[in-house]
Write a structure and sequence with these properties.
350 residues
Length: 350
């Protein structure tokens, strides 16, 4: 198991942030979304103003079925960046996944960042986040305390096998993962959502996870920020990890394939989809295919780190909302739940 100093940890997180904004880290064009076409409805029997893109998460009303997907924290730019996104979550009723809370398990002061952000965004709808390697070896009471401190709506357990193999500080120790997830589900009062970080899920894994009683799976498929690439680009080009990361730069199962695999197991499988979603039309495609929620990460990151972050994150929200509403109107879909009752997409070969 790797041990990291605070300085090394902060450097790693800064690297992640910098490289996630580098186009080379994006597995662009591999999500499968270009093969999905929404079926145009020339005469929708409604007015545009009747289109309602809102949804709910348990008792929480959400303005959109789009969430701010987990990114990063634990470095000097993180508090300001996360504060902008948390305020957006609070103001616009959006779910927001926080970056990995691994540091909080060994450093109680690490939770202070979120306490101060929570003070500025009291109604932010935050989802906690821990890697499976930490879940396996951390007592449930400690995880519960971490979630209470965040006032979390739910917990993401992220699976990042490839990233852990390519990360110099990685902990690719996943034995006992299924039992650890099942134990969490039984003992936590908040929903547990299992997610990948950009490599997607096979049918076999989805079947096993389905039997554990988790609330949902975020398939987080190939097509967006590729954490294998991110780890590789932290090394110099002549170094071993850089070269090995190049070999695995397109590793993974696409977002679309992972979603279809889940629906093959059970039409009612609660699936959240992320991985290469860059606009509201792509979100609409995944909703039409049966996703319950859509995660977007890198575009929020770009907006939150721009020159005028408050303005940028709000403009991105409005853009995503309008794009989704237009896609709904032009498929004759008045409400998000209507996507469940009629098929408005088809497979399109190039």
């Amino acid at each position: 198991m790797s041990t990291e100093s605070t300085t090394q940890f902060e450097k790693r997180k800064q690297d992640h942030l910098r490289i996630a904004l580098d186009p080379r880290s994006q597995a662009e064009g591999l999500s499968g979304l270009s093969h999905v076409q929404l079926i145009h409805e020339a005469l929708p029997d409604m007015n545009f103003q009747e289109v309602d893109p809102s949804t709910s998460f348990f008792s929480r009303k959400l303005s959109l079925p789009i969430f701010v997907s987990s990114m990063t924290g634990g470095h000097e730019k993180a508090p300001e960046m996360n504060a902008h996104l948390a305020r957006l979550s609070s103001d616009k009723q959006l779910l927001m996944g926080v970056g990995s809370q691994r540091r909080e398990l060994s450093d109680p002061d690490a939770s202070l960042e979120w306490k101060s952000i929570r003070a500025k965004a009291p109604n932010a709808l935050l989802i906690g986040n821990l890697g499976i390697a930490q879940v396996i070896r951390t007592p449930v009471d400690q995880i519960r305390g971490m979630l209470d401190s965040l006032q979390a709506e739910a917990l993401f357990v992220h699976l990042n096998a490839l990233q852990e193999c390519l990360q110099p500080e990685g902990t690719p120790e996943f034995r006992g993962g299924y039992a650890a997830i099942e134990n969490l589900v039984q003992k936590l009062s908040v929903p547990v959502i299992v997610k990948e970080v950009g490599c997607g899920f096979s049918v076999t894994t989805l079947k096993r996870i389905y039997g554990l009683g988790v609330y949902a799976v975020d398939v987080s498929g190939l097509g967006g920020t590729h954490w294998g690439r991110v780890e590789g680009y932290r090394s110099e080009s002549e170094e071993l990890l850089f070269q090995v990361a190049e070999t695995f730069k397109d590793w993974g199962l696409s977002t679309v394939q992972s979603l279809l695999s889940a629906k093959e197991i059970n039409e009612n499988y609660t699936v959240w989809s992320s991985g290469g979603v860059r606009d509201g039309l792509q979100a609409a495609k995944l909703l039409a295919m049966g996703s319950n929620m859509i995660g977007i990460a890198q575009p929020w990151l770009k907006a939150a780190l721009s020159e005028a972050p408050e303005k940028a994150v709000n403009e991105l929200f409005e853009k995503l909302k309008l794009e989704l509403k237009i896609a709904m109107f032009c498929t004759g879909t008045a409400k998000i739940e209507n996507f469940r009752t009629k098929k408005v997409w088809k497979w399109h070969e190039h």
